[in-house]
Amino acid sequence: MKILSSVKKDLEFNQGLSSLIEALKNIAVTQFRIQEQKLKSFEKLILTIEDFFGFINTAKVDHPFLRPQNRPLGIVAVTSDSGLLGGLNLKVINQALLELEKTPGKLIVIGECGKNYLRETNLSFVAFPGISDEERYAQAMQLRDYCISRVLEGSFGFLKVVYPRPVSFTVQRVETVSFLPYMPSLRQKSAIFPLEAADIILESRPEDIVEYLVHIWMGQKFYEIFGLSRLSEFAARFVHLEESSQKLKDVEKNLRLQYFRVRHELIDRNMRELFSARLLYAG
């Protein structure tokens, strides 16, 4: 039979751990709300860039951003430096590896956790530091410049990004976004550009214009994806902590039952010993 003091000690430890998890859950919720308020999509900028592409005959532009030819695939996996994410980082890495199985290429990983996972695979990769809220813009521009330089030098031509996207506060989904070749949607031209393509005089070469527009677009998309990844990190941490909290409640319930059972057994044993002693002395 387990000692009563030992069961009580386990119960107290479980209660303390539950309190700590509740505090961490509240922190995760606060971080999520703050990050959510800071997050901007800059949709107007993206749409304006697409409008500019409406005045360029991309079919006649020979640029690696539009025509990667047979160059390899570059895949960017965005992971986190933090723990308590319930396997979210591993899902990102697995999805990136799945993309590489379909089309062999070069792997770029963001975050320390992703690096640790990939070291076990013996695959070659290029690593960048994990996303920091204070340095998020600079990190996005650094990654943008690196990818563009590799594409222009011919190291790879296709580019995909795998990252966690928060569908809601409790649901995160790993998404794969194709960056290159750039495929302008060519939506209907905005009213602020009433001219036709034939009426436009281009002072720069179309290739240079394409390169500049994609340069801006990629930087903004990386910045947006980094923000969404951080948002997913806080949400995933809350979900993981909530699952742990429910498991601890089940453990606490069993410990309480065990505590009262041991306590009752101890009381029954003491009562039997007491009556036995009385009978002995009464005889």
What would the keywords be for this entry?
283 residues, alpha/beta, Pyruvate Kinase, Chain: A, domain 1, 6 helices, elongated
3D structure, described in words:
With 283 residues, this protein is of the alpha/beta class. It folds into two domains: 4-26 and 243-282; 39-187 and 200-239, Pyruvate Kinase, Chain: A, domain 1 (3-Layer(aba) Sandwich), CATH 3.40.1380. It is 58% helix and 12% strand. The chain has six helices and five strands, in the order ααβαβαβαββα. The chain has helices at 4-38, 43-53, 88-102, 112-119, 136-153, 206-282, and strands at 73-78, 105-110, 126-128, 158-166, 172-180. It has a five-stranded mixed beta sheet with strand order 3-2-1-4-5, sandwiched between helices. α1 packs antiparallel against α6 and α2 (43-53) runs antiparallel to α6 (206-282). The radius of gyration is 29 Å and the shape is elongated. The model is unreliable at 187-195 (pLDDT under 50).
Would you kindly provide a brief summary of this structure?
This protein has six helices and five strands. With 283 residues, it is of the alpha/beta class.
Radius of gyration equals 29 Å
Q: Can you give the mean pLDDT?
A: 79
Biggest β-sheet: strands ordered side by side in the sheet: 3-2-1-4-5
- Just name the CATH architecture of the largest domain: 3-Layer(aba) Sandwich
- Tell me the major beta sheet: 5 strands, mixed
CATH class of the largest domain: Alpha Beta
The quaternary structure here is single chain
Number of helices: 6
Strand portion = 5-15%
Query: How would you name the CATH homologous superfamily of the largest domain?
Result: ATP synthase, F1 complex, gamma subunit
